[in-house]
Amino acid sequence: MRLSPVTRLRLGARALLRQVTDPYRRYRNAGVIHAIRVATSILASIALTTGIDLPHGEWASITVLVVIGGLQHLGNIRKKAAERALGTLIGASGGLLLILVQSTFHVPGLTYLLMAVGCGVGGYYAIGKAGYVALLGAITLVIVAGHGDAAISDGLWRTADVLIGIVIALVFSFALPLYATYSWRYKLADGLRDCARLYSRIVGGHAVGDDEHRQILARQGTMLVQLRGLMPSVAKEIDVPGVELESIQSTLRSIVGALEMLTALHLATDDAGTRTRIVDALRGEDRKIREALIGIARALKYGTVARLRAPKASRPIDVSAFDAPIELERYIWLHAELRDQIDALRAKLAELATHWNI
Questions:
Q1: What is the three-class DSSP state of 247?
Q2: 307-326, pLDDT tens digit by residue?
Q3: Cβ pair 176, 139 in contact under 8 A
Q4: Could you tell me the residue ranges of all domains in the chain?
Q5: 0.85 exceeded by pTM
Q6: Where are the alpha helices (DSSP H) in 72-150?
């Protein structure tokens, strides 16, 4: 059946819109979306300053890049865009003051000294908590004042350009925002899938020293570091206390740690009969653990919160029934600990689902 041109156009528009509205697609194309946002904001600044014939309009475009060029997630845009805007305003005010000093006293040495002092103060605070504000304040001071020999009218025009650039940057910062929560969710989902792969290799008798096993363990370490870096922005975006996200991070770290210890043990025993009995006894639990890890990963990726429902309670494994050596007793104990940690992670994510499922 051939589709009419109107139908094809409608389907094409819907597919294009899905690229923008679907959270996972926005996460996968975050770099492209941010690049388009920055490019569009630059075009807006050029069109505005050129359209009203504003002198030194290039400073508006520079300010746009300074304010949002390196900001991607909404969680850090809220704070850092405001900090950068504040620093730019402080620097512009200082630059105008330097121009007034030079035009009043005509002593270049005094102007240079004051500029050096201003930049020194900016450098002092730039290595502290107010680093963005201080550094951009010093940069903008030099932009507006030059070396103190700029005309007051030029300083005022440059200040106006900076203010226009700030407004444009803030407007475009909130256009098609890229949530850190998306990155946190999908990286966590990928990490849990890797946990399931790692667990399958351990209980399936695969070699635990091969390249694939080491690569999975390396990805787990990288994943934990990346998730921690996203947590402050995620907390702001979904209005959840940082301690709640820290609890999830701690539980995930315990799961990875349990898997690493299971890797080290790996049911090493010369008693094939004992090993077989333990594997058979844990077979049902093995399946539940893999299903739980994959289920949580799918809930995070697709937003299907129903997958986070608590499973039916299972009977604990009686270690004494196997008369196993200490290494195998530790294996069984770690197996139970892993199951408990996965259940704890599921419960924490279910409790916060209304926040992160955006």
A1: helix
A2: 888 776 555 555 555 555 66
A3: no
A4: 5-173, 180-356
A5: no
A6: 74-105, 108-126, 131-145
